[in-house]
TrEMBL record:
Pathway: Porphyrin-containing compound metabolism; protoporphyrin-IX biosynthesis; coproporphyrinogen-III from 5-aminolevulinate: step 1/4
Sequence similarity: Belongs to the ALAD family.
Phylogenetic lineage: Bacteria, Bacillati, Actinomycetota, Actinomycetes, Mycobacteriales
Organism: Corynebacterium ammoniagenes DSM 20306
Catalytic reactions on record: 2 5-aminolevulinate = porphobilinogen + 2 H2O + H(+)
Protein name: Delta-aminolevulinic acid dehydratase
Amino acid sequence: MRQLVAETQLSPRDLILPMFFADGIEQPKEISSMPGVYQHTEESLVQAVREAYEAGVRCVDLFGVPREEDKDAQGSPAWDPEGVLNRALRLLRKEFGNDILLMADTCLDEFTDHGHCGVLDEQGRVDNDATLELYVAMAIAQARAGAHIVSPSGMMDGQIGVIREGLDAAGFEDVAIMAYSAKYASAFFGPFREAVGSSLEGDRRTYQQDPANYRESMLEVDMDIEEGADFVMVKPALPYLDVLAGVAERSPVPVAAYQVSGEYAMIKAAGANGWIDEKAVMMESLISIKRAGADQIFTYFATEAARMLAKDA
Ligand code: PBG
């Protein structure tokens, strides 16, 4: 009876698995603050994507982890066809074709030696407009390497419009844009910084949203849609369900939410201590994110949750 009247359904098809591919490692390397999540080698990446696919997941989101010595002030491995992320895209596109959607993180922070999402001016401030052209070059390189979806996550003003124009001009009209529209300057991203070996000192408060603000996020969403976003996203998820519900209410395009590294780490840590029932909390958090209005959910639990959903069905 409960299933018959359930107002919200979660499906493996709703889930997007974020993954890390690293240069210069011989073995997959577990991220200590994210048990069960790895920096992958080529072999383990293909294997993990296959497992996700077999569980019913149909989209993965790729992050590249370059060697420290390959980083520079501009983040040039980002648009280098031989850069770590672009190689991962080519590898997976060759292996899986169109069976699984490949999304790429379109942001410079993994590739810059200062760890910011954009380039810096002489005063060391992030230069919004100088960053935009680098995002365009990065998005085109990712499309060329096989990305079905690019996902600008750097929160620069105007990034969606210029990337759309750049992709279209390069013949990639059918590559979609997942816009990180309401992305908060969040302490919940902590474990991610370890995951990508971030060089960041300081914070991202000049370009990411203030956790105190709701209305400002609605403006960000409206602008991204106006500029051509195919999806808009709210991030983190659980602490921002009100924002997610507000975006879902007004958006004419699909709305995604990102259950981020810190949300994952908290559930894993409490679960490992026996303080909560990890699997139950995992499923409850995902159904809550869906209920609040997410059409797609980025989660490091994607494969595991998809397997549990398949068992229940
Ligand atoms: C930036 C980016 C970040 C995350 C995804 N893309 C980090 C940041 O903005 O500091 C965080 C993801 C997570 O915490 O799981 N490229």
